[in-house]
Specification:
There is one protein chain. With 269 residues, the protein is an all-alpha fold. 72% of the residues lie in helices and 0% in strands. It has two domains: 4-40 and 114-264, no CATH class; 48-108, no CATH class. The chain has helices at 4-17, 19-37, 48-56, 64-71, 87-137, 150-153, 156-174, 178-187, 191-197, 203-214, 218-226, 229-237, 241-264. The protein is elongated, with a radius of gyration of 27 Å. It starts with a helix and ends in a 5-residue tail after the last helix.
Amino acid sequence: MWTRQGVKQRGKKAFTLNYWKCVLIAVILSMIVSASGSSFNGGSFSIPAFRERIHEQDFDVTDPTEIIDDITDPDSDFYLDIDPDDKHDLANFTIGMFIVLFVIVLVLSLFISAIVLAVKYFLLTPFEYGCRKFFRKNLEEPAKLKNLVYVFDSHYKNVVKTAFLRDLFIFLWSLLFLIPGIIKSYQWRLVPYIMSENPTMNYKDALAESRRLMHGNKWKSFLLDLSFIGWDILSLFTWGFLGVFYVEPYKASTDAALYETLKYGIEAK
């Protein structure tokens, strides 16, 4: 039966013995995780004077029929002198333009999303798994930085495939409300460490092994994560410096220690 204190003690001891490399890898890992979880928000542009007029007139630019009504109403500030016979054609043209713009925005969004996913899984995720391997190896002896790129040298496609499917399944479970997604993320949290030991493993076996190891340990793992909240608060008061130089490598090393504890029954030495 493992304890939070034992796992944290082993993680802290390991990272302090190889301090500066652990800090460097933890910074890289934090940047990768942040970048992987971020989204691209499209910008917007408008003519200030026109925007103010629109707000004053309570003008809904998302409704084509309202636009037609305003520009054909003589009492409207947006009135245009249009032949009544052309109003129908103008309405069809305006609605058509909105459909075209919608399709363009949709295609661009899909294109940008595809690029983001490609960068995430073909570049960032392999480095993330490399960071996880570094901290796992560092539990036994001072790890080398070359662990960071192990995925690129060892069964790259299989590791990327496993990482993608793991995240996809967690996302699909999250669609059933948030709680199932959180449970699955804890159930499969050990997959990066499992793949770092056996990069040839089939993704089904990797998910099954993580599920086996986490069986009965998800709540305790959640409490382990929660136990760092005090350190996170202190990090905020130091403008993040404490997080960079202590908290983040401490967390990453503890997470690796959790894997070894569940896999091999090893805690603090």
